[in-house]
Amino acid sequence: MATQTGLGEPRGPWFISPDLEAGRPDVLGVPGGPTLTRASRRRRALLAALAVVALSIASGGLAGGYVASRELPAGQGKASAAAVPPDLVAAAAQVVPGVVSVMVEGGGKSATGSGFAIDDVHHIVTNDHIVARGGGGEPGGAVMVETSDGRQFAAQVVGRDSSSDIAVLRVPPSVGLASLPLAKPGATRVGEPVLAVGSPLGLSGTVTAGIISALDRQVRLGDNRHTAVQTDASINPGNSGGPLVNARGEVVGVNTAIATIDGSGSIGIGFAIPIEQAQQVADTIIGKGG
User: Fold this and answer.
1) Is 128 marked active-site?
2) pLDDT the model gives residue 290
3) Domains along the chain with CATH numbers
């Protein structure tokens, strides 16, 4: 059975801007993609020189950053450390118990990601690419979920939809997961604070903070085009399938993909499937599969 290795697979579908021509070397985060041009390498070097390393702290639901720059005046660092809104702390405490790590193994393949409970009958939403890449849909494939307190349970694949990258799992009632409230359609606003919750790099119960950077972002994820929620909350391999939640603890999207520079990890541009889309697909899957 697949276990959390700390490697954070799967990375998630790569992001390709629909404004870029297919096959251009400007494509971001495509493993094994075309070689970067000299201009692209210069841009990558410039961006790398400007990069800020963010350290996300899950315990207590806090998220902060360290900037390697000039020394701050005395006392200024303490003021910055106290700037995390208390409602984000409450949102993290509310959400984490309803989020699980997802581990899939079958056909000689394995994958890990995240998921979250959406109802009181223990249905869990996650990304289809996690199940697909882990061989969970193949004969003999197995899916396990791990709760925030370390308990593991076998999960049933209720159904999958590759075009939307949504899959639904079901776990026994003994798991006792609390379903997460979903944001109302049209209620999400650019600039509002959000938390990405999941198991990046196999680190379960991790919370990272940011804002909604854009709505209705037209992107191509894998082979399909999507209208996505864009965020600068750190999303890394293993976050796929986890919830993006607002300061009220409501799910606004399903974390699905990141833009990278030469596959270097999170650069503060992540994408989530809007929750109204994910809910519609999940309801259809549940209606067909129980």
Assistant:
1) no
2) 66
3) 95-179 (2.40.10.10)
